[in-house]
Amino acid sequence: MIQQLVAELPLEQLPPLKHVHVWQRDPVLPGNRDFEPGRNELTDKIASEIAQKLQSTKSSTNTTTASLASANQIAKVDEAILDVIMVEPNQWWFGWHQATTTVSRWPGGIYSMHLPEHAVSRAYLKMAEALQWARLPIAAQDVVAEIGSAPGGSCQMLLENNFQVIGIDPAQMHTSVLEHPKFTHVRNRVSDMRRSGFSNVKWIMSDSTVTPTYTLDSVEHIVTRDDVNIRGMLLTLKLTNWELVKELPQYLDRIRGWGYQYIRTRQLAFNRREICVAVMKSRAIRRIKRRRKK
């Protein structure tokens, strides 16, 4: 089957392909029936078989086969990728694209990873994807506060990135998080927390199961104070009903009103009915961080 499919590809019309990306359409919502989006054994096997067939295919007008590099691996910027979408068992869609953005470099646009055994919740996956997508210039040892942190999945991912983490939630945190030397638990609602508690905080994360307005109210109470200097945020806006989608431009305008002009939004692969919003005061912060790395 794969040999026939490859034989029918118009290779002479394609640029030199560096990668084959194969992924399946989500059968259920992420997190349901233990399903998580991303690469799996089947898609990796098919990607490898297609790559091998392409490498053995001769074409006098195209150098695709000679330059093909990998199957279901993250591409580099500007590399050409053959896309294979497994819509149904008997229905596959083929196409190609050129990697131009962070997400377009990932197979299926998904930062593929599995929930490790030590993770206390799916929030671990959501935070991992959000950090990879947003690419906020958070430095090691920066103080990051997470609003609505219990039971601690997101905090685990932040701690694994070597950040100092403050978890704000009246609910109990998982023991493994509480015992981490770089974690501090403020067992209170953010609205009841003293603003002085944010004096050293540089970044705010929030993924609470509340309406977007409630989330923004909580954050606004912090970032609009003169004695607080929050460089950026990752906010998850829960769309508790589909009508709230119409309000998204107003939510973003409200964030801009706090002085944050660099705003990006995305429904992450590990999200459900929610939108992730990456926020910084300006793009210059990212540019400075990149220059320092060089």
Oligomeric grouping of the chains? single chain
Domain count: 2
**Helix coverage percent of residues?**
25-40%
What gross morphology would you assign? elongated
**CATH homologous superfamily classification of the largest domain:** Vaccinia Virus protein VP39
Q: Major β-sheet, in short?
A: 7 strands, mixed
What is the N-to-C order of secondary-structure elements (H for helix, E for strand)?
Answer: HEHHEEEHEHEHEEHEHEEH
Q: What is the CATH C level class of the largest domain, in words?
A: Alpha Beta
Span between N and C termini?
47 Å
Structural overview:
The protein has about 290 residues and is an alpha/beta fold. The protein folds into 2 domains: about 1-110, no CATH class; about 125-294, Vaccinia Virus protein VP39 (Rossmann fold, 3-Layer(aba) Sandwich), CATH 3.40.50. It contains 9 helices and 11 strands. The strands form 2 sheets. Strands 7-6-5-8-9-11-10 form a 7-stranded mixed beta sheet, with helices on both faces. A 4-stranded mixed beta sheet has the order 2-1-3-4. Helix 4 (about 125-135) packs across helix 5. The termini are far apart.
